[in-house]
Design a protein that fits this description.
4-stranded antiparallel sheet; mainly beta; about 60% strand; two-stranded antiparallel sheet; flat; about 80 residues
Length: about 80
């Protein structure tokens, strides 16, 4: 996920980054009717996931690394 940068030269800045490893698409479908907005459904299988969250510093307005989460399903390691 991204937020608008402080200037046009910076552009979008990611604040939530998901990394999945050893992944594959298990299923995909599109549902909807003539009168509704189509909805996509994805099922993704993976062996490990990493999530990085960056918070906005109230004083400077800059993004700073806040939290990380790691989970390896093969080894059961959480970090």
């Amino acid at each position: 996920m991204c937020r608008a940068g402080d200037s046009a030269s910076i552009g979008l800045e990611p604040y939530l980054i998901w990394k999945i490893k050893d992944c594959y698409l298990q299923s995909y479908c599109v549902d909807g009717s003539e009168e509704s907005v189509p909805k996509e459904k994805w099922a993704i299988k993976y062996n490990a996931i990493e999530v990085e969250y960056k918070a906005t510093d109230i004083k400077t307005g800059k993004l700073t690394k806040y939290k990380d989460f790691k989970w390896d399903l093969a080894t059961g390691e959480v970090g």
